[in-house]
Amino acid sequence: MFFMLALITGGFFKIGLFFYATVLGLSHVFKLKNPSPLVFSIGLVVLFYSLSIAQNYFEHVYEGLKIIPLTLHLPFQIVIPALLLVIAFLRNRKKVQSVPVKNTAENS
């Protein structure tokens, strides 16, 4: 009983924190001083999306084990970080080549 209570409470706070971060992030992106108008519209999007993504528990587990790792985890955990690493390497390589190196032995 305590495990289920902790699981439900933890899920509630996790969803609440993600929702809060989404509202604040979108208000920052759209440069809104008051993020209150976004709360209802984002809440409706989350509600309808959660109802349409999986009709039952078994479909939810199937999507979480078979579809999500290929469509979300692979790009966000491997492809995008690898591309950012290559871009950062190329940008820093150009900066290192253009900076002149001073010889401290000649100055003393």
Describe the structure.
It contains four helices and no strands. The protein has 108 residues and is an all-alpha fold. Helix 1 crosses helix 2. The protein starts with a helix and ends with a helix.
Please identify the oligomeric state: single chain
In terms of structural class, how would the helical and strand content be classed? Answer: mainly alpha
Strand portion = under 5%
Overall number of strands: 0
**Main sheet?**
none
Indicate the low-confidence ranges by residue numbers.
Answer: none
Question: Mean pLDDT, as a whole number?
Answer: 87
**What level of helicity do the residues show?**
over 70%
Rounded to an integer in angstroms, the radius of gyration calculated over CA atoms is: 24 Å
Q: Tell me the series of helices and strands, N- to C-terminal.
A: HHHH
Shape: elongated
Number of helices: 4
